[in-house]
Design goal:
This protein is mainly alpha-helical and about 150 residues long. It contains 5 helices and 2 strands.
């Protein structure tokens, strides 16, 4: 099971991230490649507590769905909605210079991976409180999902 906790898994994500170009065409969704990079950065900021997102509480934070999303051996499907605060067209970060935005994601991946225990105090907008390990798994899955969106 891949996670940001494993250095090899992080390196593989970074290698894939570096293959994305500003003009890369999405396989699904409405984000451009520069917007996707900023969205991934904002999601990682959510993990570190640098960014907050509005809650969408419900049964999914207390049921098997949370486990299924994090641990089932299936890829996340296209079309998952995001919080407005993480959407680059609403309240999320707008792209600036693509190479700098990519470097920022690389640094955030390392920051999240090296976060001291205590991520379990963070609240995910959909899944509520998650363990430290679950946050590292979620961050890997989320980044992977968007890299696949751009064929990386």
């Amino acid at each position: 099971m891949r996670t940001l906790a494993r250095p090899g898994d992080r390196r593989a994500l970074v290698d894939r991230l570096r293959k994305v170009r500003p003009e890369s065409t999405p396989r699904w969704g409405r984000m451009s490649a520069p917007q996707m990079v900023c969205h991934v950065a904002d999601a990682l900021r959510l993990v570190t507590g640098q960014k907050r997102a509005s809650r969408a509480p419900g049964l999914h934070e207390r049921t098997v769905l949370k486990w299924f999303v994090l641990y089932a051996p299936l890829r996340w499907p296209p079309g998952i909605l995001t919080s407005p605060e993480l959407d680059p067209e609403c309240g999320g970060t707008s792209p600036s210079e693509f190479p700098a935005d990519v470097s920022h994601v690389e640094a955030l991946l390392e920051l999240v991976a090296g976060a001291p225990e205590g991520l379990d105090q963070r609240v995910h907008p959909v899944f509520g409180r998650m363990s430290h390990a679950a946050w590292l798994r979620w961050a890997w899955l989320h980044t992977d999902h968007h890299l696949r969106q751009f064929g990386a």
